[in-house]
Automatic annotation (TrEMBL):
<dbReference type="GO" id="GO:0008897">
    <property type="term" value="F:holo-[acyl-carrier-protein] synthase activity"/>
</dbReference>
<dbReference type="InterPro" id="IPR037143">
    <property type="entry name" value="4-PPantetheinyl_Trfase_dom_sf"/>
</dbReference>
<feature type="domain" description="4'-phosphopantetheinyl transferase">
    <location>
        <begin position="101"/>
        <end position="170"/>
    </location>
</feature>
<dbReference type="InterPro" id="IPR008278">
    <property type="entry name" value="4-PPantetheinyl_Trfase_dom"/>
</dbReference>
<dbReference type="Pfam" id="PF01648">
    <property type="entry name" value="ACPS"/>
</dbReference>
<dbReference type="GO" id="GO:0000287">
    <property type="term" value="F:magnesium ion binding"/>
</dbReference>
<protein>
    <submittedName>
        <fullName>4'-phosphopantetheinyl transferase superfamily protein</fullName>
    </submittedName>
</protein>
<keyword id="KW-0808">Transferase</keyword>
Length: 247
């Protein structure tokens, strides 16, 4: 049985839809329709394949029953493994662990409205100082600022998803006054948080961040791809691009 985190990646275009009656029933419960309903069933299909692979059990094994925390974060009854799922564009990333609750968030690189105003509200003093130092004369196309902000946004969402609070707790994640690679989050345990480039896992431009990480930043990563009537997982070699101290 594995004892470390494992990240699984896929694109929606490569995934089938779950036919599990429990998953289909969830569509009505959460009032999901159209494209979002299809994506939800694809996510459940992906989760089952990854979960069984992670636990080294038969692929036909159904997923355990799922419950949700008060703010909506799902978990498996009995905690056979902890997981967190994120999507951005066509990319889907799933983090599984035996060690405890985890969080993962991804953001693809695309322009954001009111970037300056949002960044000033979200970033800590040291982060904001660095953000402003990246300013160019072309404010409408400030790629460096956008790239930095998106990385820091994944930090916050990752921590909130690990805690189970989600965006309701955004104001509780505070960047340090002096160190731009340090954040305080009373909802999380102390630890290290790592950011990786989406391009390193073949999912376009942008960032994804996991918490908590180990002392090395190494992350076992597997890419899903269809193969005939079945599928395969391929190992991906990635390295952390950034590290932050939490609490």
């Amino acid at each position: 049985m594995k004892s470390t985190h494992c990240l699984y990646t896929a694109t929606y275009a490569d995934l089938k839809e779950s036919t599990d009656p429990r998953d289909v029933a969830e569509l009505t419960k959460w009032n999901l329709h159209g494209r979002r309903a299809g994506q939800f069933l694809q996510e459940r299909f992906f989760l089952r394949r990854c979960f069984n692979h992670y636990l080294e059990q038969d692929d036909a094994t159904p997923l355990p029953d799922t419950c949700r925390l008060s703010h909506g974060k799902p978990y498996f009854l009995g905690d056979p493994a902890f997981y967190n799922l994120t999507n951005t564009g066509q990319a889907l990333l799933l983090l599984l662990s035996h060690d405890g609750p985890v969080g993962v968030d991804a953001e693809c690189l695309r322009k954001r409205r009111n970037l300056q105003a949002v960044a000033k509200k979200v970033l800590g003093p040291a982060e904001w100082q660095y953000f402003t130092s990246l300013a160019s004369t072309d404010e409408e196309n400030n790629a460096a600022q956008l790239d930095f902000f998106l990385q820091r946004w994944t930090w916050r969402e990752c921590l909130l998803k690990a805690s189970g609070i989600a965006l309701a707790g955004l104001s509780s994640v505070v960047g340090d006054d002096k160190e731009r690679d340090k954040v305080t989050s009373p909802l999380n345990v102390s630890g290290l948080m790592y950011s990786y480039a989406l391009s390193d896992v073949g999912l376009g431009e942008g960032w994804f961040t996991i918490f908590p990480g180990d002392n090395t930043g190494d992350l076992s990563t597997l890419g899903y791809s269809p193969q005939g009537e079945g599928f395969t997982f391929s190992a991906l070699d990635i390295k952390a691009r950034a590290c932050a101290q939490v609490n």
